[in-house]
Amino acid sequence: MDAAQVKIRLFTKEEDESLHVSDAPLYVPVSLKRYGLSEVVNHLLEKDTEAPIPFDFLIDGQLLRTSIDEYLVQNGLSSEAFLNVEYTRAVLPPSFLGSFNNEDWVSSVDVINPQSVAATSSQVPITDAKILSGCYDGIVRTYNASGQVERQFVGHSAPVKAVKWVSSTRVVSAGNDRQVRLWKSGAEPVAVDDDEDAELGKTYAILEGHKAPVVTLDVHQGSNRIISGAYDNTVAVWSTIQSQMAAINVHADEDKYLSSASKKRRKMAVQDATLRRRAPLSVLDGHTQQVEGVAFDARDASVAYSVSQDHTIKTWDLYTGKCVDTKQTGYSLLSVLPLAGPSLLATGSSARHINLSDPRAEEATSKRLVGHTNFVVSLAASPDNANLFSSASHDGTVKVWDVRGEKPLYTITREGADTKPKLFGVAWDPVVGIVSGGSDKKLQINKGTDIAK
């Protein structure tokens, strides 16, 4: 045993009474790292004869990823210091569950499951989790968890860049054809809005207003709102109920922007003369370059965020349509994710790192997470742990992060890949796991990192 020791107090904030040890301080060797401290806690919990529980440790709110001695040196503390050390169940590494092929590059993914639907009484129940994907072939697809395509949505005349579940019976997509499309994906027991004449798998409303490719979407079910961001430097606000938006006529010169193949695809997809075209509720103008990411605030549906290649994070008041805050950074921002638990905003950048910031603070960056080696283009929050989120990058990996640390907890690579494909989208679902897609034309599923039991 190392001669140098430090005095610590072990405590936990978890409600599980079986994880509580005495609050009495104890001395431990400064050479201990996470594994050694985990052995100490298991011994104090008298779990030596059972399967040991892996723990993580936090000092002053930061994950311990070094020895205690290194922590003391880094923070200018002596071995006579008294440390309050919080322990919590460790996160297990994600395991590969499977992958299934797609027809083209997968640009965006989303997941819906029976649990999330059951929590919303207005939605039609579903029996199995479903995966939604948008692809460069212009087609939106839904899959079951076994990888079987259940429905294809044909209508976009260019690559689809963003998809979201609106409800258990509706999806929304956006693409390089400058359109946002609402689709009917499932049967509804009663008519909702006035779309009872829309066929399953068909477009029941085209949302038009952007003048350039639409690359990002977010949906807020409680307020029936959709926001989109586009390369025309704007953010648009829409309703999930098409009758709440003003009708527009088909532009006569719309087809001049399309190739012959695109015109044919549109003609086949838009055969119904009654197909509705709707204008946005509002257009938020303020960015000076392409908008790459949009998101509703995690707590307040009247607030939204957008990030752009103009290096800024903008906060929008959706009631007034005004920008209420702009944070300037030194690099193009490509993705955004509000984290409700720690009240932080995560943004992925072209500089290969992820920034964490407090939306209420003046500074654009409070912490920088480094680990990716290429653009960080998609972010997804953990459904089970408020401090965890995942990121997808053009470096071919998905990384799992804890906001209390500075390095990734785990890195997910593409199973069986000889090269590193670009990844474009990631979603994290409590039932299915972590779903990612990219230029390898595959959807890959890794089991979500549940708290170790």
Automatic annotation (TrEMBL):
WD repeats lie at residues 153-184, 207-248, 284-326, 369-411. InterPro entries: NLE, WD40/YVTN_repeat-like_dom_sf, WD40_PAC1, WD40_repeat_CS, WD40_repeat_dom_sf, WD40_rpt, WDR12/Ytm1. One of its GO terms (molecular function) is ribonucleoprotein complex binding. Residues 6-72 form the NLE domain. Keywords: Nucleus, Repeat, Ribosome biogenesis, rRNA processing, WD repeat. It holds the Pfam family NLE. One of its GO terms (biological process) is maturation of LSU-rRNA from tricistronic rRNA transcript (SSU-rRNA, 5.8S rRNA, LSU-rRNA). It is found in: Nucleus, Nucleolus; Nucleus, Nucleoplasm. Component of the NOP7 complex, composed of ERB1, NOP7 and YTM1. Within the NOP7 complex ERB1 appears to interact directly with NOP7 and YTM1. The NOP7 complex also associates with the 66S pre-ribosome. Belongs to the WD repeat WDR12/YTM1 family. Component of the NOP7 complex, which is required for maturation of the 25S and 5.8S ribosomal RNAs and formation of the 60S ribosome. This is Ribosome biogenesis protein YTM1. It comes from Diutina rugosa.
